Amino acid sequence: MGKTISMKLLFGIYLLLMAGKVFAFSCNVDGGSSIGAGTTSVYVNLDPVIQPGQNLVVDLSQHISCWNDYGGWYDTDHINLVQGSAFAGSLQSYKGSLYWNNVTYPFPLTTNTNVLDIGDKTPMPLPLKLYITPVGAAGGVVIKAGEVIARIHMYKIATLGSGNPRNFTWNIISNNSVVMPTGGCTVDSRNVNVNLPDFPGSAEIPLGVYCSSEQKLSFYLSGCYH
């Protein structure tokens, strides 16, 4: 009787350990500690890139990776991003697009995305990029260091059993202060001081303008006479 109880107990512990392993799914940010669920801050260095029709805000495949702890594609995890994911902070009123697993969606998300399957132990960078849609020619909004610029909600469920569903929220936070281009052009300086010579005369203005496509631009000068 004692042996039977011991064997049942050991078998029960074995099943619990195996169940935990089979249904285990983890992620990390920038190679840090494992994350099993919940809300996580993702700090990114913003270096916006102007492109035709859209401006790249951040490539999150460089920061977030996930994997199946069991491996071998025995109990595949199915991952998708969830409606309600949106820009935040200074970008809250802007629209853009989200690239996920070979498909581009309007952002903020008004529907769930397609499903990404993960069944290997090797950490897989999430195929996720955020873009902002240009409005006008040469606009910009100031992003301060430490500011949350977007929140992305993610859902995971596995194949076997109940699937052990889990929810993740990625708070995307800027590491640096930057002017985020909200137009199809950007300039290397938005306020340039120039000392003008006596009239008549001329002075060079050290200003560079960069556009993703042909644009009609206008400039104005302001100043005072001493």
From TrEMBL:
GO biological process: cell adhesion
SUPFAM superfamilies associated with the record: Bacterial adhesins
Residue stretches in coiled coil: none
Domain FimH mannose-binding: 27-171
UniProt key word Signal: yes
Keywords, alphabetical: Signal
Signal peptide: 1-24
Source species of the chain: Escherichia coli
A GO cellular-component term linked to this record: pilus
Protein name, as recorded: Fimbrial adhesin
Pfam assignment, any one: FimH_man-bind
